[in-house]
Structure formats: structure tokens, C-alpha cells
Amino acid sequence: MIRIYLENDSFEHDVRSLTKAFFKKEEQVVTYMPYEEAKNVTSDEDIILAVFNDKEDIKMQLRDPSGVLHTEEFHITEKKDRRLYKNDFKKVLYKVCVKATGTELPWGTLTGIRPTKVPFDFLENGEGEEAARRFMEDEYLCGKEKTDLSLEVAKRELKLLSAIDYKEGYSIYIGIPFCPSICLYCSFSSYAIGAYKNYVDKYVDALCKEIEWAGTAIKDKVLKTIYIGGGTPSSLSAEHLEILLKKINETFNVKDLLEFSVEAGRPDSITMEKLVVLKKYGVTRISINPQTMNESTLKLIGRAHTPEQVKEAYAMARQAGHDNINLDLIIGLPGENADSVAYTLREIEPLNPESLTVHALAIKRAANLKEQLDKMYALMPTDAAKMQQLTSEYAAAHGYDPYYLYRQKNITDNLENIGYAKEGKECLYNILIMEEKHTILALGAGAACKFVGADGSVTRTENVKSVKDYIERVSEMIERKEAVIRSGY
Ligand code: SF4
Fold first, then answer.
1. What is the mean pLDDT of the chain?
2. How far is the CA of 157 from the centre of ligand 1 (A)?
3. What is the pLDDT of residues 337-377, one digit of tens each?
4. pLDDT of 187-240, one tens digit each?
5. pTM to 2 decimal places
């Protein structure tokens, strides 16, 4: 356990997430206590972290269970705003943790989910690559490799977005919160469609109502991209998909879209009929996601499909005319090692997808799965960084460039998720949602809107997560968004 003693709650979240990155398996207990008292607390079992911060001084002391003390201090000589002060605070915390563990983190003090936002903003504001690099390294103590990666991605993002007049546009996200079965590691609010079959009709109806509203909601911007995600949208029947896509086609000018993506997702939900419906209604990009091509892993993580079904779904999608297919992989899956990832990469090679998204496993500890998750933790790989290296080498050798990246809470080995694509096959929506550069109107249960104002500020609203609540309260969800639009954001 790590016992954390804070003087106040001003940076509690930052302390929790950064110490979690160093001491992954330690449970955290936070107590408020004056530093002078906290620094004398000892324990034969626990790690003790005492934190002090006021306007001028930041002091931290970390005592390991054997009684060894590690200390770090910083004196602030100039007045700083909260953001810069927070950077100093996190640097002191980072350094004391490095002293105690002898380990550096590849992303330094960056614990947020969008590390490319920093270099992107520097480049967009014309401050240049060198200034962005210095800021990443000096302010966030980010390692060279990750600084290079985030800069490469940010440059590509900026080039792609600059070509589409993104500030004059907006995008639509539509959430389908159903899946054929629920994966063990799932951190989304998704429902097994079998158990919810009596709600699907009503869900599609409610969604169509929200879509109809969205058609006239944003009058001064042009719709650039649509993304249907989940969940697994293809777990809907071909008939339900057709109702939904027909409504989208009637409501929006789909032909003028830059991109219309559907996350088909699970191969066990894909049929030729559904693939034909997607094509018929203007979908330009789909995702078919094996995650791994190792059958035993698929069973272990509760994905009720086989590697063979992945290949069959791909063949069907090509036959139905889909010429922009993404494939998702996950590294760090339980029971796997670098050899398993190498096998997966060999197996997907003949499929030759247009893009490849490589996720590092992030586990959200859900109480009802605690027992299974504990078993899974015992099987966690120790060579995730090697796995990631294999995937990035594979991407480079097969003509894929990294074009977006993001991180998640509890992500394996503090790594990141990286989207790779062949030139011209990048998913613009993925960049837009990460960089928060234009409004994303999000529809469906649990969907989260981001309204981006003229000054770049972001206002969020979220729909209720429960399918039943969403069906009953869809008018209220619409009104929530209306209120933000009326406010001018
Ligand atoms: S397919 Fe994705 S959304 Fe569905 S249960 Fe698995 S992880 Fe969750």
C-alpha cells in the first residue's frame, strides 16, 4: 500500500495518477495531514509519501518500507499560473518517485490522455518544433523517444486537419452500446445484445429522434465526418442498421462528408448482409477488430470469435467493396508475450488493412469481475514494451505512419494507443476527437459531446449511460445539448 499524506486537496488527482504510474500494484490511501507530522510517519509494510506545497515551496518525502528516505524540494522564485505551478509540483513528485524506484517513465509527468495536444498547439500557434520539443522535455520530463513520437504525430495531424478547414466544420458520433458478448477487460458501458434484445427497437427509435434533431442543430458549420462506434454497431441486425443508416442519409448530406466510419468491431457480428447495407448507405471506412490472432487468448478474454472468423469477415468486407478497413490490435493481453504478438502480426499480414490501431491494454477494475481480473493480473505479460516495438516496426515496414495517439488510465506499462495508417487512409474523426479542434455532436446512450467554442474552449455534455434511461429520457438529452448551443458555448 502507498499512504499519501497531503496538506490539501489541490493536486490530489495528479498525485494519485502519477504515483499509480510508478507503483502500479499498490493500493492508495490519501489522508490530509500537515507535512511536519506526515514526514515522521513510518511503516514496516507501506510506502509513505508526505507532500507539502505552498506558493513558494514544494517539498516531498517518500519513505519505503525498509525506512529509506527519499526527498525532493523546489523553491519557486517567480509567480506562476496554476498550470505552470502544477508542472513544477508534478516534477518534484516525479523526481522523488524516480529516486525511490530507480525507474523513469517514458512520458515523464504526462499522465493525461492526449499527449500530442501539447506539440499540436505549439505547431498550430507557429511556435515551432524546437519550442515544442523543449517544452515536452523541460516541463513534462518526457523522454526523447516519446517526444519524437508525439511530434511526428502532431505534425501529421496538423497537415491532415489543415487540409479540411476543420474550424468551419463539426462531426457526429453515434453510439451503439451493444456487443455480442462482454469482453473481460471492457471499460465501456456496453450491453450483451442477447440480454437486451427487447430494447433494441426502442433504442434505434430513440436514436433516430436524436439524429433528426442533430440534422438542424448546428446551422453555421458544415458536417465533416460521422463516426458510428460503441459497443459494436454491427451487433445490430441488418434491418436495424438499415433503419439507422437510412435515417442518417435522409438527415445529412452523406455524399459531401469527408468520412463516414463504422466500427464493425467484433468479427462474430459481421455478415455479408450488414456489410452490403453499410456500403449502400455511404460508409467509407470500417473497422474489423481481432485484437489478437491467438485463439487461446480470445477465449480467455471473453471474445466469442475465432481468428478464422476475422479472416472470413475481412474477405466478406472486401467482397462487399469496402476499400478502407482498419484493424485493431491489443498488446499486453493476459497470457501473451512478444512471440504471441509476432504471431498475430504474421497472421494479419495477408489481410493488408489500410490502417492499424495498436492499443495497450487498460484494465478498469470492475467489482463484479474482480475474481477473473485477479486471475488475469497473474497472467499479465512483462514484455509489453517489446510488443509495442514489434508493432511499430511492423507498421514502418508495411507502409503505415502513426497519425494519432492517446493514453488511458491504467494503461499497460504507461504506454499509449497508436493509430497507424497508409497515406490518405487516416481516420480524420480520430484526430478531431483527440485534439478537440471542432465540435463533436454525440448521440446515443453514454455518448459524450464536445462543443468547441470560437476561443478553443471545450464544453462537455454527456448522455445517460443506461440504455433504458436513454430510451425514456432522449428528449431531455436533446434539451441538454440545445441549452449548450443556445449559450453559444
Ligand atoms: S467489443 Fe469493445 S465495447 Fe464490446 S465488450 Fe468488448 S471491449 Fe467492450
1. 93
2. 27
3. 999 999 999 999 999 999 999 999 887 655 445 567 677 77
4. 778 899 999 999 999 999 999 999 999 999 998 899 999 999 989 999 999 999
5. 0.91
> Which of 232, 309, 357 to mutate for ligand 1's pocket (most ligand atoms within 8 Å of CB)?
232
Ligand 1 and 233: CB distance under 6 A = no
Phi, psi dihedral angles at 338 (to 5 degrees): -60, -35
Place of cell 458478448: 181
Which CA distances in Å does 400 have to 53, 226, 291, 394?
Answer: 46, 23, 18, 8
Q: Is 304 in the pocket of ligand 1 (CB under 6 A)?
A: no
- Whether the predicted pLDDT of 18 surpasses 60: yes
